Amino acid sequence: MKNVNFVSLTLGFASLMTACKPGIIAQKNNTAVSTEKLLETRYKMLLDYPVDSMSMPRSMNLKTNEIRKVPSKDWTSGFFAGNLWQLYRLTGDSRYKEQAQKWTPFSKKESVNSNSHDVGFKVFCSFGEALKVENKKEYEAVIIKGAETLCTRFNPKVGSIRSWDFNKEIWDYPVIIDNMMNLELLFEASKISGNPKYRDVAIKHANTTLKNQFRDDNSCYHVIDYNPTTGAVRKKTTLQGYNDDSVWARGQAWAVYGFTMSYRYTKDSAYLNQAEGTAHFFMAHKNLPEDGIPYWDLKDPGIPNSPRDVSAAMVMASALYELYTYTQNQSYLAFADKLMASVQSDKYILSTAINAPFLLDHSTGNWPKHDEIDEPIIYADYYFLEALLRKRS
Ligand code: GLY
Fold first, then answer.
1. Smallest CA separation from ligand 1 atom 1, residue
2. What is the band of 33 on the pLDDT scale with cuts at 50, 70, 90?
3. Does 338 have pLDDT greater than 60?
4. What pLDDT does 392 receive?
5. Is residue 383 in contact with ligand 1, taking CB distance under 6 Å?
6. Across residues 41-49, what is the average pLDDT?
7. pLDDT at residue 52 in the model
8. What average pLDDT does the chain have?
9. How far is CA 231 from CA 39, 132, 162, 283, in A?
């Protein structure tokens, strides 16, 4: 693991380069500021953010200082409540729980919105987190309703849940690697309800993804387009990567997380093998920077001047902590620890001078669309907090 010995912190008037003890990242007037203190300051900013039933904070443009707020139909709408629930579990401070209880209903209506596969992200990252803290039937009901809705997008001929309905002139039946993340809602809904239907759909989707979404080197494509009548693969392509043959960093992380999580529920060794294969591919990639935080696409020709994607790193870290529990492979633990040490530094923690409900800087949302480049994005925080909880347990 790389030790963070020299770091800088801009303190209004000066940028200091300070030789530090581990855990100490900056000094001003001989006052040591620990990473823990910086994070605690940032955590509290989530409590200050006013509850707004119309919009959820998604990301922040640091050039204009504008917070991007989204309605519940946005795929990220469950993360803010999820972050508050996780902060409650991390700190034991009941103020996070009170705020989480206010935000959780925000994404409830998405449990009946069948317009995209993202019902899993929206419902499970909010209500699923709520259920870990409070054993309430009403949370379970939303999860089961969401699973029912997600299953309406399953085509048995393809053996997959359709991801998106847009770009109909280009794709007939697009399935993206991110969709693996939505299976947790299905597996959990079967556990809660005793109805095997959701789990069966999840397994069929995972098997189809396993068959078609990966290259020989275990990296994955972003989008597979199917013929919905025959189930045949039409195209292997991308929307958020550099090009069809590139390695979109967050996609690799979704794959490792998705197949590790699917192994948790099924104990199917094929899922574990795929998670390990993609993890090894990622961890050994020649274009990974020294601190492990990947460029947004590992094959962007602009490397080393390309933006990083902290969100990809945090999804991967959280996945690797779980993968370690099934394999006892120390390299997963070491790599996850390295990612977590890297982001817990002033380079990646969002400056405490910025009052906004985010923790980490330097994520990249959608590079081809020039959207959310190198800025704080809410799902990086969600998987960071999840990884902290997994690391602690
Ligand atoms: N669709 C989720 C993502 O941008 O990774």
1. 178
2. low
3. yes
4. 81
5. no
6. 95
7. 80
8. 92
9. 48, 37, 12, 33
Establish whether residue 390 lines the binding site of ligand 1, counting it when its CB lies within 6 angstroms of any ligand atom: no
- Give the Cα-Cα-Cα angle 240, 293, 295 (nearest 5 degrees): 35
Q: Kindly report whether the peptide bond that precedes residue 307 is cis, defined as omega within 30 degrees of 0.
A: no
**62, 119, 180, 197, 236 from 222: Cα distances, Å:** 28, 19, 11, 27, 8
| Residue 134 structure tokens | 């409070």
Report pLDDT digits (tens) over 188-211: 999 999 999 999 999 999 999 999
Dihedral sign of CA atoms 80, 322, 95, 48 in order: negative
Q: How remote is the CA of residue 178 from the centroid of ligand 1, in Å?
A: 6
* DSSP annotation of 178: G
Catalytic residue of the set 118, 291, 346, 381: 118
DSSP-assigned states of every residue in 123-144: HIIIIIHHHHH---HHHHHHHH
Does pLDDT of 30 surpass 70? no
DSSP helix/strand/coil, 47: helix
CA distance 68 to 356: 11
Q: What does the block give as tokens for 86? A: 């996780």
Cross-strand pairs, 223? 176, 237
pLDDT at res. 31 = 47
Longest dimension (CA), the chain: 70
Radius of gyration, alpha carbons of the chain: 20
pLDDT given for residue 32 in this prediction: 53
